[in-house]
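LOG
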Amino acid sequence: MNRMVKLVLAATVVAAALAGCTSTPLPTNIDYKSRAVTRTEGGVRISAAVLSAEESVTVYGVPLAKKSIQPVWIEVENRDDRAYFLLSPGLDPNFFPASEAAEAFTPGDPPDRTLELDRRFWHLAFHNPVPPGATTSGFVLTNLDEGFKFVHLDLVANGRARTFSILTTVPGFRADYRMTQVFGREIYPAEKIVNYTDDAAFRAALVALPCCVTNEAGSKNGDPLNLVVVGGLDDAFPAFARRGWHATEEKWTGSIMKVVTSALSGERYTNAPVSDLYLFGRVQDLALQRARDNIHQRNHLRLWLSPMRYHGKQVWVGQISRDIGSRLTMHSPTFTTHKIDPDVDEARGALMQDMAYSVNLAKLGFVQGVGAAPRSAPRGNLTTDPYHTDGLRGVLVFDRRHTSLARITFFPWQGTDDEAEQVTGRIKQ
């Protein structure tokens, strides 16, 4: 056993002894473990679950969410031959140490109350290391997320590391998708699903997709379908979450009021709802957004699961654009809409560049299918905003394995060199 492991083991034993019999027992009346996501790599098995605001109160006895603190429960089962250490900054670079979080709820309290809460928080925390043959569980206190949370776990040992990237749901949030509906069941019958293993055939299928989203009746075209995402819960969507994309909230009284108050205050609304658009005869299966400084500005995308697979991976067809303002309109049931940047290719290219930093992007390319609309003759979306485009849709393939910038590959499709220039931002005028 190396010196670092010995020191941490000794510190852990001493801390446990100091806690003694006064440690507060864990509550047993909530069931967050039943929804935990589990992954295994080598001899290490991890489980993770994110607590809701109400569950946090039950477990900790104080309203953590009001301080923007969110507990993530982690369990590590170590069947490897060496001790592992969980790196909390990998989960959240700005995580809250147990003592700091406890102190936030005890200013001016009597010493015995302060000590009691500090002991509870310490007892609930995840404690390193995880020795060989042992199972360790506890909480890491992170910054608050709604809708879903990206859980990235790095476990390091002497000469070895295990990495897990998963997406978990956060209870209590009225998302405009349901994880079980989008990811937990198959939308299409088995005979309708086509798995492509030949790049040329896959390209032809992508080119043949509709050019644009439509209204509910399917009688009018709107924004261009300029994005294809290949992957799912283990690769693509953790990559989006890692790069700051958030779930959008369902349109209901509470979210509409948040829109109004955010518009009046000029504040951002990370999970603001998006309008419904249609493809394959249905509204988007999910929508994601990355908010800017206020509610009027954001990047947002909508995705529909297609009946295609690429080497067994799910294929999502999408639309991405950048909101740059708000305006009144008669073409929306709320009489307001976001104004999009007419250069929709910029939003597409910006996403592709950004995803290169996600470490999960493995392959990319471009295909025809949208149809070109020059600046001199732009097309309009369903709320009459003009847009221009080169007519291409970007294709992003994700993988669980981390890929460096130098190892991202391009589809061997015509125009690869020119298309690579677009991804790096040197778009030809």
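LOG (cont.) second protein
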Amino acid sequence: MRSTPGHRLSGLPQVAGLAAGLRRDIEVVSAVLPFKVNNYVIDELIDWSRVPDDPIFRLTFPHGDMLPRDMYDEVATLLDAGLSRSDLTAAVEPLRRRLNPHPGDQLDKNVPTDRHGRIDGLQHKYAETVLVFPANGQTCHSYCGYCFRWAQFIGIADLKQQISEQDRMVDYLSAHPEVSDVLFTGGDPMIMRTDVLAKYVDPLLDGRAEHIRTLRFGTKALSYWPYRFTTDPDADDLLRMFERVIESGRQVAVMAHFSHSQELHTPAVREAIRRIRDTGAIIRSQAPIVRHVNDDADVWAQMWRDLVAQGVQPYYMFVERDTGARDYFALPLHRVSAIYREALSQVSGLERTARGPVMSASPGKVVIDGIAEVNGERVFCCRFLQARDPAHVGRPFFARYDEAALWFDDLRPAFGEAQFFFADEAPQVLVA
């Protein structure tokens, strides 16, 4: 695999022929937000005859509108001053912090503790599931411009989540029998060699955490580097590891990330999906709905058809989170709701399994079930699919309709209520 980092993207042969303004945008925006594109994405996923409107190009390459105008101009001035890379990095760090690098109270409310203090590299927001950020998995094969985990990739130590102490991870899990699922995330755990990943997986199979029923692997590798499961030197070892987990009586769930059906049509991805499924693992697919890439009901309907045809279950349609390049990618919630409903209307029951549109906010995963008129007031009909407080799971609530609302924090209670029922909840402090 050959990867090109953001500051070198403007030198790619495919980019050299683009308009000067596009090349300038690539240089400026990649100085603030992390970008990396590999040869598979460049050669097999992007239709260069459609650039800049090709959806995968929009997904993986910088664009000028990803930064607020004043920030763009400030960074452009820094670049023109000819600063060294280290001086430029130092100058843009405060700008990066303005882009809400860790939304949803991830670092304030989700990080558990043990007798040694915070366990940075674990998150335990929902009782049943613990997220693990392996230290060696804090990058990806390519980066999505809308990534809500972009702060993992910019080299600011206090923004990074990672754990290398496998025993500490297992000790925490052993002390929490309510946990049934462990989700390896990042970055992308599939960026690691199998023998490194196994150092996190195998301790969960040795009897110390018998209550763990499912190991999930959050990954974009099927989209950006399917050879990880086919021809990479340790691809077979990875699949044997999946089989070993399944033979232990647990389930393996590959939480794939497909944003567009264009990512599903290469021979490499089809073979990778087949090989994973042959191990007994299941594959579920999730992605946010974002402008310029998949803000079209036909695109989602076609992607769901293509996923199911290959044995992958559509799982979530997320709403773009309030971080990074959100202003470039975000859609009004009323538009997101309409696209979701229109996409559902085009597919069969087996292809309607994606829950959405879902906002992964601080109190929990909130789905917009639709827009209705209740007691003469137009409202968003909302419901908790998952919640920091388990008592809220499945509980509906109504928010005042607002055409400008982009995110959960933009919502206000309907019917003249002063606040939502969950507004004063105190987060549980999870301790081993």
